[in-house]
Design a protein that fits this description.
The structure is a homodimer. Chain A is α+β, with helices and mostly antiparallel strands. Chain A contains 15 helices and 12 strands. Chain A folds into 2 domains: about 10-115, Phosphorylase Kinase, domain 1 (2-Layer Sandwich); about 120-420, Aminoglycoside phosphotransferase (APH), C-terminal lobe (Aminoglycoside 3'-phosphotransferase, Chain: A, domain 2, Alpha-Beta Complex). Chain A has helices at about 10-20, 25-30, 80-95, 125-130, 135-150, 160-170, 175-185, 200-210, 210-225, 260-285, 290-320, 335-365, 375, 380-400, 410-420, and strands spanning about 35-40, 45-55, 60-65, 65-70, 70-75, 105, 110-115, 120-125, 230-235, 240-245, 250, 260. In chain A, the strands form 4 sheets. Chain A has a 5-stranded antiparallel beta sheet with strand order 1-2-3-7-6, sandwiched between helices. The first copy, chain A, has a 3-stranded antiparallel beta sheet with strand order 8-10-11. A two-stranded antiparallel sheet of chain A has the order 4-5. In chain A, a hairpin with a 4-residue loop joins β6 and β7. The longest helix of chain A has about 35 residues, at about 335-365. The relative contact order of chain A is 0.12. At the A-B interface, α6, α7, α9 and α12 of A face α6, α7, α9 and α12 of B.
């Protein structure tokens, strides 16, 4: 069926003609369509991304493509991911206002989201490569994680709301499948799309394929990813999904969102910070030149976890409407002591989950399909492989020793030793 | 909107006229509608149940009512539960053929399931009260549990199938809410619908309301019930949902089904066997007269758990298509050793889950709204209270000491001591 509104990937002219039909959007741009400058800037793996600028202001248009951009039309991908991204952005902005881009328009059929143009924000990963410190990052991301993960869980509200969320996002099957395959499985076997720095890491890749304990631990985490319906998770919260300045932080691109394990988002942040930490050796002009920046990154790991932990607990302690752990049952001082002990047990489990998921996210960025610019931008493969090997060892320790780490300081101390 | 097919609770004449329009069903009954004998026999808490008998044979018709029959029209309940029951019966019969009633017809609008008339089967709970041994029970129920729980999990098949199951049953909100409230919360607070043997158990009820560790443990299990999307569970697998003879076992009434924690079903069976065990003292003509039957019941607890455990593991070891724990990753003897150790960890967790859920199901049957005939049929309240107090202590131990029991024999030994 072909109609006037049937999906079609747009170019600049087509996009302008669509935006011209939207009065609110046109008003934000100002002037006439002829005055608008449209640039396609997508450098991600999946979508078209346009920056549109007019006399009065700019905006961003993200349109899903019916295939994986990184791979090509041979890997089809449903346009409906845009619908889940839109729904996730709406939920996230409800609970973490100011920490996501503002949405101006959504067109489900065109798989198109019109949203705020974040400027002069840059992708955090690029800032980490350049060695830029972001004073608000850790507190903002801790707030984002705590607010979105707590408030979309059964700890915060009615079971019926939770089940409706589960149902809505349960159909985001294909995007979840990408994570299931690329994070938990493919790095540990011979898969056609795997890449690694070769021949430098050939032996490492083989060792990971033969690491029985690690493979099984990865699959146990995959089972958790498939079954732990804890909260609406972003699902791809690496440092490429964070845009920021020194004053402002935004989380973008939640198209992988679904109701999954909370630790997957927390771990994505931590794991990608550790990747950035290991990559500094490939970016510093002389050995040790980035020592202070390395220390800053590790401080962010601690600040994100501790900030998240404290904020999440504070939200939980105040909550009155959660249907899990019904507040009115907790009446006496003894009840409160028992409940607080349960909260500590819950947070400890979440800590271990976060470490293990974070470690798996590190490994897949080095041995799997999708790599990170932190490491890819190190031109000399010998130098890159040294960084990558350290990241692999940290990732492996996070997965296998999650239960043994006392606290986040203990994790950071271990990472320093493994990267030494 | 009123149409010819709009929902209406039926009586015998109306039901016959509906069945007469269904050729396959009419053929099973034989003769003419005038020849059919229709009896309403529902003694459950929620629905109308008719036995229809004709010259050629009989069948059962179960029709949902738009309210909780046990309470009345003041507690509305969606007719759609019949749709989830139908879907669960279809899934269960696929994986556990011969262990559910055969379905002849389903009418979604009338919330009506036409199914096999099981005869001379009786409700197992009534058999347990009479002291009847069922030689096939343990093996059949172990098979039912293993086949349905394994095969509707991500251990057995594609993640996409699992997500479709999650989505379908996520809308069975109101029935899940009954469990959430009545099993995990109400017994531990003053709730208008709670009942208990009073005044004999007044102090026990108060003690449970003030038992901080138990309350918090119950809520932790409620959180698990709300978030652990492991498998299609029956959701109400007590001994009143089992009909059997000495040669045949069937599981009925899965209207509480949804994608939840596997241990909830296993625990329901175990907990209700322990209730039957404690109730024997109220049914035996002289002290000790039911000692052999008590031993039989405890043997069933062990046989159900051990049978389930072994069958579930066997299915898992053979499985090739599960997207959790991808079989092709397990290649070397070392891999197999690590995987087998993971399977043991998984089964140990499932053991503890089953004990804790089973204990909570026992407690709710004594201090909450819905009681069991095992105990209710003990006319003398003093004698009943003695049985109930023992069951409460076993239930409490199952919840709080789940992690401390070595194996099912250890659990049974503890139950004997608590009931002595």
């Amino acid at each position: 069926m072909t109609t006037a509104t049937a999906y079609a990937a747009v170019d600049g002219a087509k996009l302008s003609s669509i935006l011209a039909t939207l009065p609110d959007v046109s008003a934000r741009l100002g002037g006439k369509p002829n005055d608008w400058r449209v640039r396609e800037v997508g450098d991600g793996n999946l979508n078209l991304v346009f920056i549109v600028e007019g006399p009065a202001g700019g905006l961003v248009v993200k349109q899903a493509l019916p295939y994986v951009r990184l791979v090509g039309e041979s890997w089809p991908l449903p346009l409906e991911r845009s619908w889940y991204e839109y729904n996730a952005l709406v939920e996230q902005s409800r609970y973490a206002p100011g920490l996501t881009p503002e949405i101006f328009h959504f067109d489900r059929e065109q798989a198109m989201i019109v949203m705020e143009y974040l400027s002069p924000h840059i992708i955090m990963r690029k800032g980490l490569i350049r060695g830029i410190e972001y004073p608000r990052f850790a507190a903002d991301i801790a707030e984002f994680l705590a607010q979105t993960l707590f408030n979309t869980s059964a700890l915060a509200g009615p079971a019926a709301d939770h089940k409706r969320r589960v149902k809505l996002f349960a159909s985001n099957i294909e995007l979840c499948r990408i994570t299931e395959d690329l994070v938990f499985t493919d790095p540990y076997r011979e898969a056609p799309l795997n890449r690694w720095t070769s021949p430098q890491l050939d032996a490492d890749k083989r060792a990971f394929e033969n690491d029985s304990a690690l493979k099984v631990a990865a699959q146990a985490r995959k089972y958790q990813f498939l079954t732990a319906a804890q909260a609406l998770i972003h699902g791809d919260l690496h440092t490429g999904s964070i845009m920021l300045t020194s004053e402002d932080t935004r989380v973008i691109d939640p198209e992988f969102s679904f109701i999954g394990p909370m630790g997957f988002d927390v771990g994505a942040v931590i794991g990608n910070l550790f990747i950035a930490y290991c990559a500094q050796e490939g970016h510093e002009p002389s050995p040790g030149a980035r020592d202070a920046y390395r220390a800053w990154i590790l401080n962010q790991v601690a600040a994100v976890w501790n900030g998240f932990h404290d904020r999440f607990l504070a939200l939980w302690r105040q909550a009155k409407a959660g249907e899990a752990y019904v507040a009115s049952l907790i009446a006496s001082p003894q009840d409160e002591t028992a409940m607080e002990s349960e909260r500590m047990r819950f947070m400890r489990t979440l800590f271990e989950d976060s470490l293990a998921f974070g470690g798996l996210k590190m490994i897949r960025r080095i041995l799997g399909l999708a790599h990170t610019e932190d490491l890819e931008s190190i031109a000399d493969p010998d130098r890159r492989a040294i960084c990558e090997r350290k990241a692999l060892q940290i990732g492996r320790a996070l997965v296998l020793r999650a239960a043994a780490f006392r606290d986040i300081a203990d994790v950071i101390a271990a990472a320093k030793i493994l990267a030494a």
